[in-house]
Amino acid sequence: MERIKRHKIKILCGLLYTFCLFNLLGISMHTGQNENKPAKEAAEERAVTDAVEYVSSTMVAEAPKIAITFDDGPSVHCTGRLLDGLKERNVKATFFLIGKNAKENPELVKRLFEEGHLIGNHTYNHVDIAKVSDDEAKKEILDTDEAIFSITGKHVEYMRPPFGIWQRRLELDLEVMPVIWSIDPLDWTTENVDEIVNKVVTEAEENDIILLHDCYDSSVDAALRIVDILKEKGFEFVTVDELILD
Q: What region holds the NodB homology domain (predicted)?
């Protein structure tokens, strides 16, 4: 919530600036025009008006940020349609790719990258890294990174471990940051789009990370409806790095 603290400090500074001006100039907030006022007094009142306008502008509420993420892709059947919908809505998302799927669908990976979405690592074979050796876990992650790098020319910095199970000791050897989630509608368990949508939009709050999958038609339909509803509520969709680094 550091961004919110900075925003409050900015507002307080603006208020203090205005207060100091009032005391220094010893004039009221009346800013009506009067052609007979001396030039100095008019300039002083103009300064106060500018200060008030500055404070008003800083007090405008910033849109609450939220991230929508997709696991297990890219899918030749679903990811393209999802990308079409996100592009139409001018929304950037985060995609945690399975390495073998990325290797089989290089054009989709390239499109994800070129359209400004954040690409993350989801292991090569969707394995529970807590149930394999450290060497196997590293290979799963590094092989996925290599598959993505060969297409985009950029190494992957973020990792979503399958099932949300992460081994912290891997952070000592691998330059990836684990990203979990705060809202999981379990979209992989149902084809009921209304159910998926309701679970997300009723829970959504600022800085939440939504988990969905871009390998089910119902999930794609739900995702686009979720975006429409939350944008209508004033949310701004960002990639997860913007939430983590803000």
A: 64-238
Helices (H), the chain: 2-25, 39-58, 79-88, 99-104, 106-114, 134-152, 193-201, 217-232, 240-245
Catalytic residue (choose from 71, 72, 187, 208) = 71
User: Annotated catalytic residue: which of 117, 122, 145, 213?
Assistant: 213
| Whether residue 8 is found in the same domain as residue 90 | no
Dihedral (Cα; 14, 15, 21, 22), 10-degree rounding:
160
Other beta carbons within 10 Å of 85: 17
Note if 208 is an active site residue. Answer: no
**What CATH number is associated with residue 186?**
3.20.20.370
pLDDT tens digits for range 99-136:
999 999 999 999 999 999 999 999 999 999 989 999 99
Strand partners, 237: 66
Catalytic status, residue 117: no
pTM exceeds 0.85, yes or no: no
How many structural domains is the chain composed of? 2
pLDDT band at 59 (very low <50, low <70, confident <90, very high): very low
Split at pLDDT 50, 70, 90, the class of 32 is: very low
The pLDDT of residue 15: 52
